[in-house]
Amino acid sequence: MVGNRARALIIQSRQITGLSPEVIAELVAEVGPLWHERHQAGRASRPRRRAVDAGAKHKLVFVDRLLATLVHLRHGATHDVLACWFGVDHSTITHAIGEVRPLLSERGCTISPGVRLHSLAEVVDYLGASGQTGIIDGTEIRVRRPAAGRKNREKFISGKNKQNAVKSMVVTDADGRLLFCSPAQPASCADITHARQLGLVKLLADGLVVEILADAGYQGLGAQTGGRVVTPPHRKFKKDAPD
Predict the structure, then answer these.
(1) Distance CA 62, CA 65 (A)
(2) What is the pTM of this model?
(3) 38, 134, 135, 171: least buried by Cβ within 10 Å?
């Protein structure tokens, strides 16, 4: 359990929870009684072998449960990290977030309704329909060296960084908002090859007119998509680049 001083610092720092102390106080006043009521109802509905209130007491008061949930939602902190921070077990944090998050949702603390893009095809259609410019790039994440004897072990070696990694293709709009992130695959695959495997060429050629900005790793897609993928000119055209 965090101390009073640490709890006060968390509440006062808007960068940690994303909410002002006044809003947190309102949530405690509104959601706290609901959590206590549901918790007591759940205990009363179970067959008991001991007297009421016998057994272990809560190690995490409601305020700390609320703060842990807010930090998890804002920063994506894992349950293990929050457990170390609040001085409780991993399961306690899991139960706390599982209890508090639905209550926040019922109060209206949810993701605002809007466009939901579930595939690369939907992203391309969205960019074309809204007239926005997209940006694509490949990102690599280092991983442990695959175990000896694993099939295709060398495929994880990145040609760029010469390290074991996996790669994903990311699509954003011109404002940098993430629209799509592909499943990861071994990093030896070239960026342009990965884009082709994901079907980007066919989607751009057959879909709405859309402009996609890309780096030199995607040179060649422009000719295959009718100029819809814009890349830097090739080195040999550095001085006199064709129109």
Answers:
(1) 5
(2) 0.54
(3) 38
